[in-house]
Automatic annotation (TrEMBL):
The keyword Ribosomal protein applies. This is Small ribosomal subunit protein uS15. Transmembrane segments: none annotated. GO terms for biological process: translation. GO terms for cellular component: cytosolic small ribosomal subunit. The gene is rpsO. GO terms for molecular function: rRNA binding; structural constituent of ribosome. Keywords: Ribonucleoprotein, Ribosomal protein, RNA-binding, rRNA-binding.
């Protein structure tokens, strides 16, 4: 889970202001940070299927947000995936 400080840092970096957590790039950045932290958990715990279910839900949620961003603002979509280093 992403810490409060890390969320605030991501909000400042990708948001329009310090409290703009609903902005799509901010939501995608927070989900990406959470996904990356869970990847290291699965290296150590290969058989943790319960957590894998939550992990897949986060990946699918990020995918849906990215698709929505792609349809509404393609240039911002390109900037976001480049800034977060997401393969697409």
């Amino acid at each position: 889970m992403v810490s409060k400080e890390k969320k605030q840092e991501l909000t400042l970096k990708y948001g329009r202001n310090a409290k703009d957590t609903g902005y799509l790039p901010v939501q995608i950045a927070i989900l990406t940070e959470d996904i990356e932290s869970l990847k290291s958990h699965f290296v150590a715990n290969k058989n943790d299927l319960h957590s894998m279910r939550g992990f897949m839900a986060k990946v699918n949620q990020r995918k849906a947000l990215l698709n929505h961003l792609k349809e509404t603002n393609y240039n911002l979509y390109l900037e976001t995936i480049k800034a977060l280093n997401i393969r697409k």
